[in-house]
Protein backbone atom coordinates (compact mmCIF):
# COMPACT_ATOMS: atom_id res chain seq x y z
CA UNK A 1 0.00 0.00 0.00
CA UNK A 2 1.23 3.49 -0.88
CA UNK A 3 1.78 5.57 2.26
CA UNK A 4 2.01 9.29 3.01
CA UNK A 5 2.94 11.07 6.21
CA UNK A 6 1.33 14.45 6.80
CA UNK A 7 3.41 16.54 9.24
CA UNK A 8 1.42 19.63 10.24
CA UNK A 9 0.99 21.06 13.74
CA UNK A 10 -2.15 23.02 12.84
CA UNK A 11 -4.87 20.36 13.20
CA UNK A 12 -7.37 22.33 11.10
CA UNK A 13 -4.97 22.59 8.14
CA UNK A 14 -3.98 18.94 8.64
CA UNK A 15 -7.61 17.79 8.61
CA UNK A 16 -8.36 19.77 5.44
CA UNK A 17 -5.49 18.19 3.53
CA UNK A 18 -6.16 14.71 4.94
CA UNK A 19 -9.80 14.82 3.81
CA UNK A 20 -8.70 15.81 0.32
CA UNK A 21 -6.33 12.85 0.20
CA UNK A 22 -8.68 10.27 1.72
CA UNK A 23 -11.60 11.24 -0.52
CA UNK A 24 -9.57 10.71 -3.70
CA UNK A 25 -6.89 8.09 -3.01
CA UNK A 26 -8.65 5.07 -1.48
CA UNK A 27 -5.54 2.86 -1.69
CA UNK A 28 -3.31 5.31 0.23
CA UNK A 29 -2.50 4.97 3.95
CA UNK A 30 -2.21 8.35 5.70
CA UNK A 31 0.00 8.82 8.75
CA UNK A 32 -0.33 12.04 10.77
CA UNK A 33 2.16 13.88 12.98
CA UNK A 34 2.06 17.25 14.73
CA UNK A 35 5.74 17.40 15.69
CA UNK A 36 9.19 16.36 14.51
CA UNK A 37 9.60 13.72 17.23
CA UNK A 38 6.25 12.06 16.42
CA UNK A 39 7.02 12.17 12.69
CA UNK A 40 10.44 10.55 13.09
CA UNK A 41 8.99 7.78 15.25
CA UNK A 42 6.41 6.96 12.55
CA UNK A 43 8.97 7.25 9.74
CA UNK A 44 11.41 4.86 11.42
CA UNK A 45 8.76 2.23 12.21
CA UNK A 46 7.03 2.25 8.82
CA UNK A 47 7.82 2.49 5.12
CA UNK A 48 6.77 5.94 3.89
CA UNK A 49 6.47 6.72 0.17
CA UNK A 50 5.78 10.47 0.34
CA UNK A 51 6.32 13.25 2.90
CA UNK A 52 4.08 16.31 3.18
CA UNK A 53 5.79 18.62 5.67
CA UNK A 54 4.83 22.04 7.00
CA UNK A 55 7.88 24.31 6.72
CA UNK A 56 6.96 26.18 9.92
CA UNK A 57 6.46 23.59 12.62
CA UNK A 58 6.05 25.18 16.07
CA UNK A 59 8.65 23.10 17.92
CA UNK A 60 11.13 22.80 15.06
CA UNK A 61 11.76 23.60 11.41
CA UNK A 62 10.24 21.46 8.67
CA UNK A 63 13.54 21.91 6.84
CA UNK A 64 15.42 20.33 9.74
CA UNK A 65 13.01 17.38 9.74
CA UNK A 66 13.47 16.95 5.98
CA UNK A 67 17.26 16.91 6.42
CA UNK A 68 16.94 14.15 9.03
CA UNK A 69 14.70 12.17 6.67
CA UNK A 70 17.29 12.48 3.89
CA UNK A 71 19.92 11.03 6.27
CA UNK A 72 17.92 7.76 6.37
CA UNK A 73 19.24 5.68 3.47
CA UNK A 74 15.94 4.34 2.13
CA UNK A 75 14.41 7.84 2.12
CA UNK A 76 17.28 9.52 0.31
CA UNK A 77 15.26 10.01 -2.89
CA UNK A 78 11.63 9.71 -1.75
CA UNK A 79 9.47 12.75 -2.63
CA UNK A 80 9.23 15.50 -0.03
CA UNK A 81 6.62 18.21 -0.57
CA UNK A 82 6.59 21.28 1.67
CA UNK A 83 3.44 22.98 2.92
CA UNK A 84 3.89 26.72 3.32
CA UNK A 85 2.37 30.18 3.30
CA UNK A 86 5.74 31.87 2.74
CA UNK A 87 7.55 31.59 -0.58
CA UNK A 88 10.85 32.85 0.82
CA UNK A 89 11.65 29.45 2.37
CA UNK A 90 11.19 27.45 -0.82
CA UNK A 91 14.52 28.21 -2.52
CA UNK A 92 16.34 27.13 0.63
CA UNK A 93 14.18 24.00 0.79
CA UNK A 94 15.05 22.98 -2.76
CA UNK A 95 18.78 23.50 -2.19
CA UNK A 96 19.06 21.77 1.18
CA UNK A 97 16.66 18.84 0.88
CA UNK A 98 16.10 18.35 -2.87
CA UNK A 99 12.36 18.46 -2.28
CA UNK A 100 10.01 17.58 -5.12
CA UNK A 101 7.70 20.61 -4.89
CA UNK A 102 5.64 22.76 -2.53
CA UNK A 103 1.96 23.40 -1.80
CA UNK A 104 0.80 26.88 -0.86
CA UNK A 105 -1.78 27.53 1.83
CA UNK A 106 -4.72 27.91 1.64
CA UNK A 107 -4.87 24.75 -0.43
CA UNK A 108 -6.13 24.87 -4.00
CA UNK A 109 -7.80 21.49 -4.54
CA UNK A 110 -7.09 21.29 -8.27
CA UNK A 111 -3.40 22.19 -7.88
CA UNK A 112 -2.96 19.69 -5.06
CA UNK A 113 -4.51 16.86 -7.09
CA UNK A 114 -2.57 17.74 -10.23
CA UNK A 115 0.72 17.50 -8.36
CA UNK A 116 -0.04 14.42 -6.26
CA UNK A 117 -1.56 12.44 -9.14
CA UNK A 118 1.77 12.48 -10.93
CA UNK A 119 3.52 10.99 -7.92
CA UNK A 120 0.97 8.72 -6.28
CA UNK A 121 -0.53 7.02 -9.32
CA UNK A 122 2.81 6.48 -11.07
CA UNK A 123 4.55 5.27 -7.93
CA UNK A 124 1.69 2.95 -7.00
CA UNK A 125 1.91 1.33 -10.42
CA UNK A 126 5.65 0.86 -9.90
CA UNK A 127 5.11 -0.70 -6.47
CA UNK A 128 2.67 -3.23 -7.95
CA UNK A 129 5.11 -3.99 -10.76
CA UNK A 130 8.02 -4.60 -8.36
CA UNK A 131 5.82 -6.70 -6.11
CA UNK A 132 4.86 -8.95 -9.00
CA UNK A 133 8.50 -9.28 -10.02
CA UNK A 134 9.58 -10.24 -6.48
CA UNK A 135 6.83 -12.84 -6.16
CA UNK A 136 8.09 -14.64 -9.27
CA UNK A 137 11.79 -14.33 -8.50
CA UNK A 138 13.76 -17.56 -8.26
CA UNK A 139 17.29 -18.44 -7.22
CA UNK A 140 19.29 -21.42 -8.37
CA UNK A 141 21.46 -23.12 -5.75
CA UNK A 142 23.80 -26.11 -5.80
CA UNK A 143 22.81 -28.82 -3.35
CA UNK A 144 25.28 -30.84 -1.31
CA UNK A 145 24.57 -33.76 -3.65
CA UNK A 146 25.74 -31.70 -6.64
CA UNK A 147 22.25 -31.17 -8.02
CA UNK A 148 21.14 -27.70 -9.16
CA UNK A 149 17.67 -26.65 -8.00
CA UNK A 150 15.52 -23.55 -8.57
CA UNK A 151 13.74 -22.13 -5.53
CA UNK A 152 11.00 -19.50 -5.57
CA UNK A 153 12.02 -16.91 -2.97
CA UNK A 154 8.42 -16.50 -1.83
CA UNK A 155 8.39 -20.22 -0.85
CA UNK A 156 11.20 -19.86 1.71
CA UNK A 157 10.26 -20.05 5.42
CA UNK A 158 13.78 -19.61 6.79
CA UNK A 159 17.45 -20.39 6.16
CA UNK A 160 19.72 -21.95 8.78
CA UNK A 161 23.51 -22.22 8.76
CA UNK A 162 24.77 -25.70 9.61
CA UNK A 163 28.54 -26.14 9.63
CA UNK A 164 29.70 -24.77 6.23
CA UNK A 165 26.34 -25.25 4.53
CA UNK A 166 22.94 -23.56 4.56
CA UNK A 167 19.68 -25.42 5.09
CA UNK A 168 16.88 -23.72 3.13
CA UNK A 169 13.45 -24.54 4.56
CA UNK A 170 10.72 -24.06 1.95
CA UNK A 171 7.06 -24.91 1.35
CA UNK A 172 8.06 -27.84 -0.89
CA UNK A 173 11.15 -29.31 0.78
CA UNK A 174 14.32 -28.67 2.77
CA UNK A 175 17.40 -28.05 0.61
CA UNK A 176 20.98 -28.27 1.89
CA UNK A 177 23.32 -26.07 -0.10
CA UNK A 178 26.90 -26.90 -0.95
CA UNK A 179 29.50 -24.81 0.94
CA UNK A 180 27.81 -21.39 0.94
CA UNK A 181 27.67 -18.81 3.73
CA UNK A 182 24.53 -17.08 5.01
CA UNK A 183 25.95 -13.75 3.86
CA UNK A 184 26.45 -15.04 0.33
CA UNK A 185 23.01 -16.64 0.00
CA UNK A 186 21.35 -13.48 1.40
CA UNK A 187 23.18 -11.45 -1.24
CA UNK A 188 22.02 -13.92 -3.90
CA UNK A 189 18.39 -13.70 -2.72
CA UNK A 190 18.46 -9.89 -2.38
CA UNK A 191 14.86 -9.68 -1.16
CA UNK A 192 13.50 -7.18 1.37
CA UNK A 193 11.26 -9.68 3.18
CA UNK A 194 14.02 -12.26 3.78
CA UNK A 195 15.80 -10.76 6.80
CA UNK A 196 18.59 -11.96 9.05
CA UNK A 197 17.40 -12.85 12.56
CA UNK A 198 20.52 -14.44 14.04
CA UNK A 199 24.13 -15.08 13.02
CA UNK A 200 22.92 -18.50 11.80
CA UNK A 201 19.37 -17.71 10.65
CA UNK A 202 17.48 -15.60 8.09
CA UNK A 203 13.66 -15.63 8.10
CA UNK A 204 10.80 -14.75 5.75
CA UNK A 205 8.87 -12.05 7.62
CA UNK A 206 5.70 -12.88 5.64
CA UNK A 207 5.38 -16.30 7.33
CA UNK A 208 6.14 -15.30 10.93
CA UNK A 209 3.18 -15.97 13.23
CA UNK A 210 4.77 -15.69 16.68
CA UNK A 211 7.97 -14.58 18.40
CA UNK A 212 8.57 -16.02 21.86
CA UNK A 213 11.32 -14.94 24.27
CA UNK A 214 13.66 -17.69 25.45
CA UNK A 215 16.05 -15.65 27.59
CA UNK A 216 17.71 -12.21 27.67
CA UNK A 217 19.51 -12.78 24.36
CA UNK A 218 17.41 -15.26 22.37
CA UNK A 219 13.85 -15.68 21.11
CA UNK A 220 12.12 -18.39 19.06
CA UNK A 221 10.47 -17.52 15.75
CA UNK A 222 7.40 -19.56 14.74
CA UNK A 223 5.94 -19.78 11.24
CA UNK A 224 2.46 -20.21 9.79
CA UNK A 225 1.71 -23.88 8.97
CA UNK A 226 5.33 -25.00 9.47
CA UNK A 227 6.51 -27.06 12.47
CA UNK A 228 10.17 -26.03 12.52
CA UNK A 229 11.36 -22.83 14.24
CA UNK A 230 14.20 -20.34 13.87
CA UNK A 231 16.20 -18.30 16.36
CA UNK A 232 16.11 -14.54 16.88
CA UNK A 233 19.24 -12.99 18.36
CA UNK A 234 19.38 -9.83 20.46
CA UNK A 235 21.36 -7.95 17.79
CA UNK A 236 18.58 -8.46 15.20
CA UNK A 237 15.56 -8.32 17.54
CA UNK A 238 14.39 -4.75 16.92
CA UNK A 239 14.62 -5.08 13.14
CA UNK A 240 12.75 -8.39 12.96
CA UNK A 241 10.01 -7.36 15.39
CA UNK A 242 9.55 -4.08 13.51
CA UNK A 243 9.18 -6.00 10.23
CA UNK A 244 6.79 -8.50 11.89
CA UNK A 245 4.55 -5.63 13.10
CA UNK A 246 4.58 -3.79 9.77
CA UNK A 247 1.13 -3.42 8.25
CA UNK A 248 -0.59 -4.97 11.30
CA UNK A 249 -2.91 -3.35 13.85
CA UNK A 250 -1.03 -3.23 17.18
CA UNK A 251 -3.44 -3.52 20.13
CA UNK A 252 -0.92 -3.42 22.97
From TrEMBL:
Transmembrane segments annotated in the record for this chain: none
InterPro entries xref list: Bact_response_regulator, CheY-like_superfamily, LytTR_DNA-bd_dom, Sig_transdc_resp-reg_receiver
BP terms from Gene Ontology: phosphorelay signal transduction system
Function: May play the central regulatory role in sporulation. It may be an element of the effector pathway responsible for the activation of sporulation genes in response to nutritional stress. Spo0A may act in concert with spo0H (a sigma factor) to control the expression of some genes that are critical to the sporulation process.
Protein name per Swiss-Prot or TrEMBL: Stage 0 sporulation protein A homolog
Keyword set includes Phosphoprotein: yes
UniProt-listed SMART domains: LytTR, REC
Species this chain originates from: Clostridium uliginosum
GO molecular function: DNA binding
Keyword field: Phosphoprotein
Keyword presence, Chloroplast: no
Response regulatory domain boundaries: 3-120
